[in-house]
Design brief:
two-stranded antiparallel sheet; Helicase, Ruva Protein, domain 3; P-loop_NTPase; Rossmann fold; five-stranded parallel β-sheet; globular; 11 strands; 44% helix; 2 domains
Length: 316
């Protein structure tokens, strides 16, 4: 689909494109997750611009960005914060961790243990953190963009299924083409592009757009199409565990945001098809024998889309 974007969001995309060359689709999908109040998992090899993308997005909204470098010795308290006793006041005071920010870069999240990874679960699902029995709301908007290296790399831990399920989208950056890489070198020759960009939208404007996304209409026909796709995932012969109901809700929310970004107040089946690989693939557990045949989750999602009848598009 080559629909134009809303002018305000097109400006955000172009702002980020001053830093990230040739990855428009990844930028648009990241904005989709942000507007849907979801989170993004970026999986790729080091050095392809994952961290730069997050930093460019934060600068585009003048949002507070905090980075958590996940390492094997990182503790949950290093993420969510701790209560420290103040002898002068004779009481414990909460010292916030780096999770307390508008945009959180969870860098190389799969280099730490599952116990520390789980420290993000409440924050990503509820928008709050609990320390010593006290629950505190996180600032809004709140957006986690986590990066991870492919699991084949040394010193990595697979993300638990419960953690993966909290990410609305899983994206891959990929290597640039030769022309894109030359353009990147040209931009880096004399200046640092990230230092040159500034905010193009305020946080209040972003919050207003998030509220409007919830008003995007999803017809019963499109809802049925989403459910049919999900049901097919649970019956596929190569799938050990299909997509959960949380995945159904995630696909609908992402489709609402994607339609809104493209200037529509209603979702069409094309939106669902465009987003299904990014929303559903990481929620599938593929049977080992299918993996041996190099039949991965993305290929299965492609089959599901091909097998599921597409309803006739209709606004109402």
């Amino acid at each position: 689909m080559n629909e134009p974007l809303l002018p305000a969001l097109e400006q955000v995309v172009r702002n980020v494109e001053q830093v990230i060359v040739g990855k428009r689709n990844v930028i648009v999908l990241s904005l989709t997750a942000l507007l849907a109040k979801g989170h993004v998992l970026l999986e790729d090899v080091p050095g392809v611009g994952k961290t730069m993308l997050v930093r460019a997005l934060a600068k585009s909204f003048s949002a507070e960005l905090k980075r958590i470098q996940f390492t094997p010795d990182l503790l949950p308290s290093d993420v969510i914060g701790v209560s420290v006793y103040n002898p002068k006041e004779r009481q414990f005071e909460y010292k916030p961790g780096p999770i307390v920010a508008h945009i959180v870069l969870a860098d190389e999240i799969n280099r730490t243990s599952p116990k520390t990874q789980s420290a993000l679960l409440e924050a990503m699902e509820e928008g709050s953190v609990t320390v010593d029995g006290v629950t505190r709301a996180l600032p809004q908007p709140f957006f986690v963009m986590a990066t991870q290296n492919p699991i084949e790399y040394e010193g990595t831990y697979p993300l638990p299924e419960a953690q993966l399920d909290r990410f609305l989208l899983k994206l891959h950056m990929g290597y640039p083409s030769p022309d894109e890489e030359i353009e990147m070198l040209n931009r880096l020759e004399k200046t640092a592009p990230l230092a040159e960009i500034g905010p193009v939208m305020s946080l209040d404007e972003l919050l207003a757009l998030q509220r409007k996304v919830a008003d995007v209409h999803v017809s019963d026909t499109v809802k049925r199409y989403i459910v049919d796709l999900i049901q097919q995932s649970r019956q596929h012969e190569a799938v050990y565990l299909g997509v959960s109901p949380r995945g159904s809700a995630a696909l609908m929310k992402a489709a609402q945001a994607y339609a809104f970004i493209h200037g529509r107040d209603f979702v069409i089946p094309d939106d669902v098809q465009q987003l299904a690989p990014y929303v559903l693939a990481h929620r599938l557990l593929v049977r080992p024998e299918a993996k041996w045949d190099k039949f991965d989750a993305e290929a299965i999602i492609g089959q599901l889309i091909a097998r599921t009848p597409v309803p006739v598009p209709g606004r109402r």
